[in-house]
Amino acid sequence: MSLLCPYAILVSMLNSDGKEMSKMSKTAKDGFIPVKSADRVLDIFEELLKQPNGLSTNELGQRLQIAGSSLHALIQTMLHRKYVKINEERKVVLGNKFYEFVGVYANDPLIVQSKPIMKALSKRVNENIHLAILEGTDIVFIACEQTTHPIRYFVEPGQTQKAHLTAVGKMLLSQYSDKRIQEMYANYPFEKITDNTIDSMDKLLEKLEFSRTRGYSLDDGEAYSGSKCYAGPIYDQSHRMIASLSISIPFLRVENDRDEEMISLVKEACRQLSSRLADG
């Protein structure tokens, strides 16, 4: 089972939205002006995750366009705090302290309790199973089980997606009132990605009402024209919706006469996981 990547954990802790937030910060959208040093630290982490064998400080500086003196100060601070280290080849790599985040997150009850349920569901349907949480108007995939089929809808833990495009996202948004959704999506630039993409507030509210009423959500080629997803809600001990779990199937394997079966399976998996979380 794949878990949320270390960078996504750190980004979440720093109230960022990963790559999308990084892009926003550099263009100062919506009036947001980042703390420059924090922005650069996140850039360093992201670059090092792409290069597990490490990078020299010169390579880092060139890739990130950070002046040598500024980069040196950042690296020295990160070395002192053990978030990076220098390997035998004198390259900067991620340090032990950084990976402590993985251990902490891997012990989160949601992750721990979801593992056997996701594995069992994946084995039953042999399709991708995704677990996601809501971050504003985006969702973050935090765990996944992969199908053995060579053609599949591939998602990496830590990857973000616009919530209204996905089954898990619509499921999570459905917990909010129409008024709250209108506030969250005020002046939102809806874009038509596929023929089925939600491209207006009215359509979004209609889909969310469907999810509230039925207790599940669908993505019928809305994010990608070649896939269909079925999602259900996951609740914590206080019956607060905290996550959503989905089955994702490429259209070439979708059988519409199995919709009810897929919906039933995903709802039962979500019920089991919610029950485990409620029991502590």
Explain this structure:
With 280 residues, the protein is an alpha+beta fold. It has helices at 6-13, 18-27, 36-50, 57-64, 68-80, 96-106, 109-125, 167-173, 178-184, 201-214, 259-278, and strands spanning 2-3, 84-86, 92-94, 128-135, 138-145, 160-162, 217-220, 227-235, 241-250. A hairpin with a 5-residue loop joins strand 2 (84-86) and strand 3 (92-94). The longest helix has 20 residues, at 259-278. The two termini are 21 Å apart.
> Which structural category do the helix and sheet elements fall into?
alpha+beta
The major sheet is characterized as: 7 strands, antiparallel
Radius of gyration: 20 Å
Number of helices: 11
Helical content band: 40-55%
Question: What proportion of the residues form beta strands (DSSP E)?
Answer: 15-25%
Average pLDDT value?
86
Number of strands: 9
- CA-based shape: globular
**Are there runs of 5+ residues with pLDDT below 50, and where?**
11-27
Helix/strand order: EHHHHHEEHHEEEHHHEEEH
What is the first-to-last residue Cα distance?
21 Å
SSE layout and pairing:
Layout (H helix, E strand, L loop, with lengths): L1 E2 L2 H8 L4 H10 L8 H15 L6 H8 L3 H13 L3 E3 L5 E3 L1 H11 L2 H17 L2 E8 L2 E8 L14 E3 L4 H7 L4 H7 L16 H14 L2 E4 L6 E9 L5 E10 L8 H20 L2
Antiparallel strand pairs: 1-5, 2-3, 4-5, 4-9, 5-6, 7-8, 8-9
Helix pairs in contact: 4-5, 7-11
Keyword list:
280 residues; alpha+beta; seven-stranded antiparallel beta sheet; two-stranded antiparallel sheet; 11 helices
Short précis:
With 280 residues, the chain is α+β, with helices and mostly antiparallel strands. Helices cover 46% and strands 18% of the residues.
